[in-house]
Predict the 3D structure of the following.
Amino acid sequence: EQADALAQAGEPAVTQDGRRIEVAANVAGLDDTEQGIACGADGVGLLRSEFLYLDRSDAPSLDEQAAAYTAMAKALGPQRPLVIRTLDVGGDKPLAYLRQPAEENPFLGLRGIRLCLDQPQLLATQLQAILLAAGEGNAPLHIMFPMISSLEELRQARAILETERRAINPAPEVKIGIMIEVPSAVLLADKFAEEVDFFSIGTNDLTQYVLAMDRGNPKLSSQIDALHPAVLRMIAMTVQAAHARGKWVGLCGNLASDVEALPLLIGLELDELSASVPVIPSLKKQIRALSYGACRQLAQQALNAATVADVRALLRSK
Ligand code: PEP
Ligand code: MG
């Protein structure tokens, strides 16, 4: 059955009633990207760019970064988008060479875009390297900012990007998006949707921040569940705000790799799911067997559930 799913993996994932879902890969480098392509990924939905920065004593050079992004953009080719998330460290992933002071609450501290805006040269170099990966025959480039919690952060990051973009002649075309993983971004999704091309929902952090539960705390691991009805309502709000403004929404947290959650995610009207590479063939295969109409009914019921247990019971009853 696995072999069967793999054989068809290159085909698009379309439900029985004609809704196409992009199934993309979460990757951390060229090897994963190549494996993703072999597993039928429609693109890279989340490149965790941290791999270039971790486990070393100084920041990666412009050339080194540009070479890495270009290799991935070439491997994907012109039909498969490459969504590059800008550096998402700080908090629990400190980098020695950034010399950031220790924080009492790292997950509420200088992480993700906040750290990059505190060290704008670091972000500028990364954006320049990403822009150098634009080119004919390469993947359409998408730049995604992590941990955005206010419009000001987006606008500041975007201003740095524009400066780098205009310095190149001709200025490369890129799509711009944000991770939706902080509750304030959900509540302001209508405003954000007016200023970006796409959203990708990071359910790992969104669940942590909605439930106020540390995602790494083993004592809470049985309770921190992205299928919590409060998280589902946030996903629905985000999708509605984006679609009303003609923007697409993906989901790149671990929930996208949860086969049991798949009909619900389709029913919540996500346009793209970005999952870990090995599950891509089976996700695509399952999507082809689903009815979008039935999934939407399921999602309506889930949005009315009171507890995670009710949501899980609902999913198992189908
Ligand atoms: C997320 O928060 O859901 C996400 C995809 O990002 P990360 O797991 O890298 O924080
Ligand atoms: Mg995250």
Notes: The pocket of magnesium ion (ligand 2) is lined by residues 181, 202, 204-205 (CB under 6 Å). Strands lie at 13-14, 20-27, 44-48, 82-85, 141-145, 175-180, 198-201, 248-251, 272-276. The longest strand covers residues 20-27.
